[in-house]
Design brief:
heterotrimer; A alpha+beta (about 375); B mainly alpha (about 280); C mainly alpha (about 280); B: about 280 residues; mainly alpha; C: mainly alpha; 14 helices; globular
């Protein structure tokens, strides 16, 4: 009986201990439920897919530059004597822009003239020798004197021509004149100094107008064609609108392959703008009146390419060999409440810009797509949401 | 008056939640609509008795109780008789038989489902023996499944009641009988069963209560609208409630109560007569 | 029949009785996938002609795994919430009914008053009624008291259940009058007798009542269906009723956890329980 009693007692103690453990465990799990869930399930952040139009927006600034610019160099490399124009000055054709110091040329001319004089003097000597030879009747002396005279005559003629040439060159190189009507864009010449390597004057051609060049993403460039008119906002003191006509587009060799539908670059999980290929856009300013060149302009482009589609952030788009896909959150309703699972959903990308991808197939409006998660998720993983 | 102090808490709650509601229910059963209806006599009862689903439910309940209670009593009594003999591990065995009582139905219902399903284990066995499979829950067999579940759950409870009854029978009665040359069967009928009768009344009472509780098993196993054969009065009443057919429900309830009262009164009278005879 | 043979025979029977319980525990250690593979066919009408496709109850899992438990305890905190819902309903009912019933039972068992036996008969009759009988009026009362959709709608009727009064009265009737008479001679009042003598002696009865009430209410289905429409308040028993094909994978673990408190309580109070039940069954 006693034995039974103690056995029963110890059994009760065991049950008590087990019960305490059981309820303790349940209480602990109840209190820490959310924390434990957080530890075991990755948290995902989602964005709602919305129906809309994908606008390709671009905002960039560029500088107005003249369409044609002539660099006028110091023709002879002489020192600059006077710069007669100022930067930005309007000049007309034939106007003298820079005067050069021709003292060196003068010196050379004087030297050449004195050389000619020497030659003429020596000519007189030779003639005198010839007369002597004729009077002496020395035939051989007479012949050699005659040859010398002929040679000297050629030398004199040469020298005279050289002087003439030098004189003409001096007149020409003494000044730099404007080859056409235009505006002085830059002055490289400095009075008192010779050529510095840079052109002495940069002259813009007023007849050819102005243009703006800027790099834009190829995705937007595709939506433009030559001849399109775009609005440009002139910034700075004078704020007004300009119109620019697309004159040329040249894809920039640095930025990825141009054939890729832009979505490629953007869809790669937004790995930076570096992957986006760009195009050099040249806009001819339609009415360049009052422009000088060098003004800053701002270009605001917003182009819609495709019809309305489902828009999702680029961050949500993933790609692999099977194509593009997103992870969506799938809800499983259970008696224990709703559980959320990651589901891989293949999509067809219609278009994309830097931030947003337009999906033509695979998603419906208001669907939630995962843009970010506390740890990497794959298809079928249960998550917190 | 002193007794009233002890009784008061129970009596108040009991009245509010049982007696008054029941009286209201009886009243409702004679009116034509809930709250403030006019008195229509036995119209609701006529309608109720004419309703085939009620008759079906009543018949099923009666059949189930009539089938399962005697079976249960027979089974638990035999078990008690066996357990009352010299045995190893008597306490362990007793525990094992009572354990189903404390296991919540909801937690073992899945096992039963897997067992009795169309594709279930029971049919697998039948298949092994080369027999056709039976849709246990969608045929008249469903009542059998319920009876088994009922037996499984309640056998332990009745068994300990009988054990107590058996242990209260003085051993010298048996010895006297043996000396007088009575056989095992005679001993059983004339001593054991006779002296067990008071216990028996109680067991019958408890068994009936518990047979009404089998609604849970049915509900868990087969839902709101189970197969015809296990569509019990409780299902009927529950469904009447949800379809807001209050009059029928209260009429059915009153009728059921009437039957129970009659039965219990009869039982108690029988018990008193039995006791008078014994003395 | 020898003792050994009988023991073995009863042992086999006992083992059969325990099969559903044991299977629930062993199946709760399966992985959800295994459950899915094994029991997928349940509830599907397969063509009889196709035949040969059956579901066998698996005794042992292929791989032991706590996956189901992890799932319901950690990943789906709703299970625990419902578990506590159940507890929040059951504990007040048990405490309340035991207290209220002990008082009333004492009056019925040891005090004399007019109409005692008639009143007790009323309790007895009520105890026999299925829940549905008083469903409508009960609903109206609960509605009038403004208790609809709150735990009180279940707890209050539970507290005043007749079963406790019946059970404890039966038990207390066995306590010999000698004890109470002796106390009365010593000048003790009714309350003192109740608290000092009857209650301690009624411990097995109280234990038995606790276990039986626990079994009954831990299991309740009917009341919450009607009175608790709000899913967040429903007890676990209802959830287990809703286990459908999808959740079967975790159903076994949920069931196992659900029955554990019951089984523990029973094993702990077993001897009291048996004594209590037995005494309540013998006419006092």
């Amino acid at each position: 009986m006693d034995l039974d009693e103690t056995a029963a007692q110890s059994r009760k103690r065991k049950i008590r201990r087990f019960a305490a453990l059981f309820f303790g465990l349940l209480i602990v799990l109840t209190l820490t439920g959310n924390t434990l869930q957080a530890l075991t399930l990755p948290k995902v952040y989602t964005a709602q897919a919305n129906r809309g139009e994908l606008a390709h927006a671009f905002k960039g600034t560029g500088t107005v530059v003249p369409a044609e610019m002539k660099e006028l160099a110091n023709p002879a490399g002489w020192k600059v004597a006077h710069v007669l124009v100022k930067q930005g000055e309007r000049v007309s054709k034939g106007q003298t822009l820079v005067q050069y110091d021709d003292s060196e040329a003068k010196q050379q001319l004087a030297e050449a003239q004195s050389a000619l004089k020497k030659l003429q003097l020596s000519m007189e000597g030779l003639e005198h020798s010839y007369i002597l030879a004729v009077t002496d009747g020395d035939e051989s002396a007479k012949l050699s004197a005659k040859l010398a005279i002929e040679t000297a005559k050629l030398d004199i003629a040469d020298q005279k021509q050289r002087i003439q040439f030098q004189q003409a060159g001096r007149a020409e190189n003494q000044r730099l004149t404007a080859p056409f009507d235009g505006v002085v864009a830059a002055i490289g010449a400095t009075e008192g100094l010779g050529s510095s390597g840079a052109p002495d004057i940069q002259l813009t051609n007023a007849a050819k107008g102005f243009q703006v060049e800027m790099l834009i993403p190829s995705t937007i460039a595709e939506l433009l064609s030559e001849g399109d008119l775009l609005e440009l906002q002139l910034t700075g003191e004078e704020q007004r609108m300009l119109e620019g006509r697309v004159a040329a587009m040249k894809s920039d060799s640095l930025g990825g392959n141009a054939g890729d539908l832009g979505g490629g670059g953007a869809g790669a999980g937004g790995q930076g703008q570096g992957a986006v290929s760009s195009t050099l856009l040249t806009l001819a300013v339609v009415d360049g009146k009052g422009l000088k060149g060098g003004e800053r302009v701002e270009l605001n482009l917003s182009k819609v390419k495709s019809a309305a589609a489902i828009l999702i952030p680029n961050d949500a788009v993933h790609k692999d060999v099977d194509g593009a896909y997103v992870y969506t959150v799938e809800e499983h309703q259970g008696p224990l409440g709703n559980a959320y699972y990651v589901a891989r959903t293949p999509i067809e990308i219609a278009d994309a810009n830097e931030t947003t991808t337009a999906v033509s197939q695979g998603l419906f409006d208001q669907q939630n797509v995962i843009v970010n998660s506390s740890e990497p998720v794959i298809d079928g993983v249960r998550v917190r949401y | 008056m002193l007794a009233l102090l002890f009784l008061a808490p129970s009596l108040i709650g009991f009245a509010v939640f049982y007696i008054i509601p029941f009286a209201m229910g009886v009243y409702e059963s004679f009116t034509d609509r809930t709250l403030g209806g006019s008195f229509v006599g036995f119209d609701n009862y006529k309608e109720l008795l004419a309703s085939s689903s009620f008759r079906k439910a009543a018949a099923n309940t009666l059949l189930f109780t009539g089938l399962s209670v005697p079976l249960l009593i027979a089974a638990s009594l035999s078990l008690a008789l066996l357990l009352n003999r010299p045995l190893f591990f008597r306490n362990g065995l007793r525990t094992a038989f009572i354990l189903p009582l404390v296991v919540p139905v909801a937690s073992i219902v899945m096992i039963w489902q897997i067992f009795a399903d169309w594709n279930g284990t029971l049919n697998l066995w039948l298949h092994h023996w080369g027999k056709e499979r039976v849709d246990w829950l969608q045929s008249d067999w469903s009542m059998g499944v319920l009876v088994i579940m009922y037996l499984w759950k309640n056998i332990g409870y009745n068994m300990i009641l009988f054990l107590a009854g058996l242990q209260s029978i003085p051993q010298d009665y048996y010895e006297t009988a043996r000396i007088e040359g009575a056989g095992r069967l005679r001993q059983l009928v004339h001593i054991t069963l006779v002296y067990l009768t008071p216990t028996m009344f109680f067991v019958i009472l408890i068994s009936i209560i518990n047979s009404f509780k089998v609604f849970r098993e049915t509900y868990l196993l087969a839902g709101d609208y189970p197969y015809d054969r296990i569509y019990m009065l409780q299902h009927y009443m529950n469904n009447m409630f949800f379809s807001l057919d209050i009059q029928k429900l209260t009429a059915a309830a009153t009728l059921m109560v009437g039957c129970i009262v009659l039965f219990v009164t009869g039982l108690l009278r029988a018990e008193r007569r039995f006791r008078d005879n014994m003395e | 029949m020898s003792k050994l043979v009988l023991t073995i025979w009863l042992g086999v029977m006992a083992a059969i009785m325990l099969v559903p319980i044991v299977l629930t525990f062993t199946n709760s250690l399966m992985m959800e996938r295994e459950i899915g593979l094994n029991y997928d066919l349940i509830g599907q009408m397969t063509d009889a002609a196709a035949g040969g496709k059956f579901v066998n109850l698996k005794v042992l899992p292929d791989w032991l795994s706590l996956e189901q438990y992890l799932h319901i305890l950690v990943l789906a905190p709703k299970f625990l919430r419902m578990f506590w819902n159940s507890a929040a309903l059951v504990v007040p009912i048990i405490a309340g009914q035991t207290a209220v019933a002990a008082l009333a039972a004492y009056a019925f068992a040891k005090l004399r008053f007019f109409g005692r036996d008639k009143l007790f008969l009323l309790y007895l009759m009520t105890m026999l009624m299925p829940f549905q009988v008083t469903l409508v009026p009960n609903y109206m009362v609960v509605d009038k008291l403004g208790l609809m959709n709150s735990g009180a709608a279940i707890i209050l009727p539970g507290i005043f259940g007749a079963f406790g009064v019946f059970m404890l009265r039966q038990f207390m009737a066995h306590i010999p009058f000698a004890y109470t008479e002796a106390a009365k001679i010593d000048g003790a009042g009714s309350w003192t007798i109740f608290a000092r003598i009857i209650l301690p002696l009624a411990k097995p009865g109280l234990a038995a009542l606790t276990v039986l009430l626990f079994v009954d209410y831990w299991n309740m289905i009917e009341q919450p269906i009607i009175f608790l429409q709000d899913a967040s308040m429903q007890p676990l028993s209802l959830y287990l009723a809703y286990i459908d094909k999808e959740a079967r994978g975790i159903g076994f673990a949920a069931s196992a956890l659900y029955m554990t408190p019951m089984v523990l309580l029973f094993l702990y109070a077993e001897s009291y329980f048996i004594e209590g039940v037995q005494l309540s069954g013998i006419k006092g």
